[in-house]
Structure formats: structure tokens, C-alpha cells
Amino acid sequence: MNNENIAEQGVNEAINTETSAQIENAAPVANVSEAAADDMLDFDDDPLSATGVSRKSLVIFFLIDTSGSMKGKKMGELNTVMEELIPEIRKVGEADTEVKVAVLTFSTDVRWMYSNPIPIEEFEWARLRASGVTSLGAALKELNARMSRNGFLNSPSLSFAPVIFLMTDGYPSDDYKAGLKELQANSWYKFGLKAALGIGSEANDNVLAEFTGSADTVVHAYSGGQLAQMIKIIAVTSSQIGSKSMTLSDDTGHEIGEEDVFAAKQKLLGQQIQELVGKTETDDVPFDTGW
Amino acid sequence: MTELEIGQEVELEFGGKAQVLSVIGSGGQGTVYLVRFNGQKWALKWYDIDKMKKPKEFLKNLRSNIADGPPDNKFLWPKYLTKEAEDGTFGYIMDLKPEGFDSFVDILNTYKLEVDPLTGRAVKKDVKFNSLTAMITAVINIVNSFRLLHRAGKSYQDLNDGGFFINVNTGAVLVCDCDNIAPDGSNFGIGGKPGYMAPEVVRGIAQPNVQTDKYSLAVVLFKLLFRGDPMEGEKVVRDVCLTESSELKHYGQNAVFVYDPNNASNRPVRGIHDNVIKFWRIYPDYIKDAFIRSFTTGISDPTKRIIENEWQKLFIRLRSEIIMCGCGRTNFASMFVQPNEKTFKCPKCGMEFVTLGFSNRSYRMPLFLGCKFYECEINPESEEFMKVAGELVENKLKPGVIGIKNCSDRKWRAKMPDGVFYDIAPGKGFPVWQGLEIDFGQIKAQI
Prior knowledge:
The structure holds two protein chains of two kinds.
Chain A: H1 9-26, H2 32-41, E1 56-65, H3 73-93, E2 97-106, E3 110-112, E4 118-119, H4 136-146, E5 159-160, E6 163-168, H5 176-184, H6 187-191, E7 193-199, H7 205-212, E8 218-221, H8 224-242, H9 258-261, H10 264-284
Parallel strand pairs in A: 1-2, 1-6, 6-7, 7-8
Antiparallel strand pairs in A: 2-3, 2-4
Helix pairs in contact in A: 3-8, 4-5, 8-10
Chain B: E1 9-11, E2 17-26, E3 30-37, E4 40-47, H1 55-68, E5 80-81, E6 91-94, E7 102-103, H2 104-109, E8 111-115, E9 122-126, H3 132-151, E10 154-155, E11 164-166, E12 173-175, E13 182-183, H4 199-202, H5 210-226, H6 234-237, E14 241-242, H7 244-253, H8 274-282, H9 285-295, H10 297-300, H11 308-320, E15 322-324, E16 330-332, E17 337-340, E18 343-345, E19 352-358, E20 364-366, E21 372-374, H12 375-378, E22 388-394, E23 402-406, E24 412-415, E25 421-424, E26 429-431, E27 437-439, E28 444-446
Antiparallel strand pairs in B: 1-2, 2-3, 3-4, 4-6, 5-6, 7-11, 8-9, 10-13, 11-12, 15-16, 17-18, 18-19, 19-20, 19-28, 21-22, 22-23, 23-26, 24-25, 24-27, 27-28
Helix pairs in contact in B: 3-5, 3-11
């Protein structure tokens, strides 16, 4: 897989500046000793003053259905769990990764909670309200538009592929397939970690699996307690996996190739979500069910 | 029982119970708890055996590590095992990190977050070495601890930025996470942390061992000194999005050092890798050459990697070449002008520094008030790089007279202006003058 198509201008400009700086330094100067002294002092030469090691960045996109059917208990539960979730995600990035959050809500209209992704340390959840219909297609189009180097993924340093987490409780009321088709051509989406949560009986897991690309990363919540649990499981697991480099298999039978690592994180996410969901579901089954 | 409850008691193998007080942190293999045992506070690491490949072998190895004991007091070594729970889970207790040590990660970030207990708000606090000597001492300590470990026939396996605590005032080092340490040649399932793993481990063609430790050690040292990633330059940044396959490529199949003299495709990028660009101008060639070797020929040929003893010598030299000028500028001798072979001159204020030449080294040590040399530098049989042997001081009774004090416990002989060598007992000193010669025994020195 090459992702040169997402490499854009910014980097090249930075690289060109570096080269010209080197040429200036190489210019011949008459007095060697003085030149040497100048060379030692023409920059911040303090061996102890350093900036932090450049961190990789990760943007977590939450796509949240705020249609009328979410009104009441669902929205109350969602708002509460999202507020509680932020400090938990804060721990995830820690030293290596700068985590940012962007929230896109969709009902009749599509809206970003903030105009830019916000660093997790500064992020504050603005409580959402529900009304209108479920314009998932429009939301996917909007996500596609912002998920670019010129849009929300403009960190100058390296980025991990984003985490994209979709939550919805109904069948899309617009042409979601058209939106998804546009999104599927986006490299960030292709490499991103996708997960989805269906809320209640109206949400269609097949639609969600089309979005995530696999059934393993789709889960369903039927009760309020489950909703809170599932949101936490998905958000924490996906941001944990998304904010770290891949962990390699140490199965050293053969040299690892691209095919071994392709979409390795997405597969790992599917596995972990299924494991965690499996654990909680057995607890939820009433004693007289499942015989 | 993958998680422990607060208040829960865990039985130790040789008796006694540890009570869980709080969670300290969690990692890939389990969680570390603060516990009380025998009236004292300890750290308890409790494993999630579902996440381990070979828990039985792992436990057996842990047991033999505990029996062997640490190679040196710089290791936060496992102390006692717990009893195995019915489901096979287990843990061990170890000493807590002492006060005054910061994590390597915080040092790289240049700050740590401290949570105000009243407001719950996290406040950024600077984490920075307070002197250049402390920083280079920390490097020597890190190198030395791995030298001792490897000499004990063991490898650390997953050497990374989470493995150390450092005292930024003194350069003292504590090596933590010692539970994956294993006899060289064995591996109990740990792969390592991407970015620190040797390319052959990333590619899946080797398991962690002493040679791959050497690669990871070079990465740790590079990060500490140059404050950046040795393999992350233009080539990597062009990919923008770090996918699994780009990591395999840039850290495994096609890893290119940012300052590879024969391959300029991956140079640091201004605006992103400013630290590396800056520090590459500051460090002397012999340090840069060692990194070039580690990250060029050392990538494909593990036997070409710098051995710990060689790093240790290089950094002991670097420490002896630090100059603290009266004008406040502190830097390595290579960042001072050298008007002649025996003199350094501050490019900022013009102050000149005379140097001392030792019979066992090709480089000269600049002298300034407060500069020190160490036991290992004047005694070929000594390995003591922390024990001060001599210091340049001002005579307390004759202000303005500068001399060298014998801080060692052996007698030296020094030549005075009358041409005669006099005995210098421990605790005594002698003035520095143009024709000074010192006889330390096997090693001699002169101005």
C-alpha cells in the first residue's frame, strides 16, 4: 500500500528550507577562526535547551446521530458517558501521541461540535440535543471533505491513521451509499480504524458493517447500561490501538511482509472489541434466557 | 483474576500478604499496584496471563531472575513472587521508585503533568536536566547498567523509553520493568516497542537478544541526546500517515538513518525535527560517528553495533570535555574555538582554558574552576566512573590561587615550579602552573 497520495505540499516546503539553510552554512568565509566562532554562535547552542520530541498525532472522529429518535434517555446516557470518557482517553496518548478529538453530529443537518479537532487535554464535551431525521449520507460526505491534509488532519508531523467511531439509532433517511462511496476513496478512511455502535432495535448492523468494513467492529446496545459500556469499550480500545505503533507478531517463522501487516490494527480492534463485548454480554443475560 | 480490587489481599509465595492500596499504572502485560506488605509500601505487578504467550515459562524465568538478583543496584528488580492464583495468574513485588526520579518519557517531553489534588486539574511542570554533566552522567549510567546486565549473560529484550527513571539533578539512573529480562537466547513472548526494536526484530527474522538490545540502546541514547527519532526524517514524513506497512518499511525493511552519510533520502525536516538538526551541530564527531555506525552498518550487521564498553568510554570522554565558561556558556569542547593544540577559547566571551593531557588518552581535558576527573580516568584498573578523583579548586587560604585537589584515596606526585616532584596525599592539593606534571601511578598527566 502506498499512501503518497496523501502526502502534500507542506512537507516539501519544509524540506526545501532545510536544504537552503545548509547551503548558506557552507559558504566560504575568509577568517577561519572567526568563522568557526560565528558558526558556533549563530544558533541556540545550549545543549540543554530542547523542545519535546516531536509526537505523532491521532485524531479521533466521533460521528453521532442526533436525530429525534435519540431524544430522552439515549441522549442523556450518551452525553453523560462522553463527558466521563474524555479523561479516560486523555490517559491513552500519554507520551508518544498527541490525541485530538473531532465530533460530527448528524440529524436533519450535519454539524461539527467545534470548528477544528481539539487536543484531548483541552477538550470539553458540549452536551448534545436530539431532533430531526438521520442524514448519515450527508455526514459521511462532510467527513470525507474534512478528512484531508488541508482540513482536519493538518498536523505538520506524522499522524497515525484516524479513529472513526459512528453511533446511530436508526436507518439512514438519505442516500448513505452515495456518501459512503465518496468516503471510501479517501485514503485516511481506508487506513483509519473504524468502529460503529448501533443503538436500539432500529439501527441496522449491516449498514454499520458497510461503514466499518467488517462485522467484528460493529456492536449493538439495547439498554442504557449497555450503551455506556459499549461506547467506553469502543472509544478506549480504538484510541489505544490507534495511538500506538503496531505491535508485531513475534512469530518468527518467516520474514514479515506487507500482507502480514495490512490492516493489522483494524483486525486487532475487531478481535479486542469482540473479546470485551463477549465478556460483558454474558453478564447481561438473564438467568432464564439462552437455554 | 486479571484485575485486583482495592483492599484485596494477595498472598506471597514465601508467606505474608500484600494489600492492594491503589493502581499505579497499566501496561501491555498487566497492571502495577501500590501495595502494603510487612508495614511497608511496595509496587506489585500483576499479570494478565491472557495477553501472554508463554505464562508458565515466563514465571519460571521470573523466579530464576529473583534468585540471581540484580546485576547492580541501578535495577528495580523483582523481589518476591506472589502465590499463583487458581486460574494461574501471578505477580511479583518490587521496590517503589524513589523520590526525585523522573521518567525518561517525561524527560523527552520536557514536562510532566502533575495533578493538583484539590482541583483535579493537571498542571504542566518542566522536566529538564539541571546541568550538562548530569545529562552525560545519566547516559554513562544507562550504558553501564546494560553493560553489567549483558555481562551477566542476560538481555533486557524490550528496551524503550518506558524503561528508565532518571534523576535530572545528579544523572542517577534506575532501570525498571525488569521482568522481561531473560538469559541471552531465550524469549518469552515480548517483541519490543516499535521505534526501539532492532530492524531484524521488526521484520520478524530475529527474536530479542543481546545484539538487538544494543540497537535499542543506541536508539535510547540518540533520543536522549538528539531529542528525536533516528529513523524519522524526510522519507518517513512524506508518507504523512503512519500505517502498519509504512512502519514495517521505515523501521524494518528499509530503515535509513537521518544522517546516513551515504544516503541523504531521510534527512531531518526543519519545523518537525528541529532538535535533531540543532544537536547534530553540537555534538563532537566521535559521538556522531558512533551513531552513524550504529544506524548504518549496524542496521544490517548486528555484530557491527557499538558495544556498551565502547559507549561508556566515549561518554566518559564527552563528560571530561564539558566546559563551563565564566560567562555562563556551558558546552562541549568541540563547540569552543581552539587557537592552539593545548587551549580552548570561548567564542562568546573570549576566555581561554588550558588543558591537561593524560598519558592514556589522545584528547586533552579542559580545566575550569569546578571541573572534575574520576577514578576510572586515572587508574586503568578502575571502573569507577562516579567516584571523583580530582577537582580544580581555589585555595581557601590563598584566594586567587587555583589548583588541583586530590580527592582520591591514593597518594599522587606532582612537579612544582622548582622542578621537584612532591608527594600529594589524599585531601591535599597543588597549584596549576605552566610546567605542571602529575604522576598518578600508572597514568601521568601534564599541562
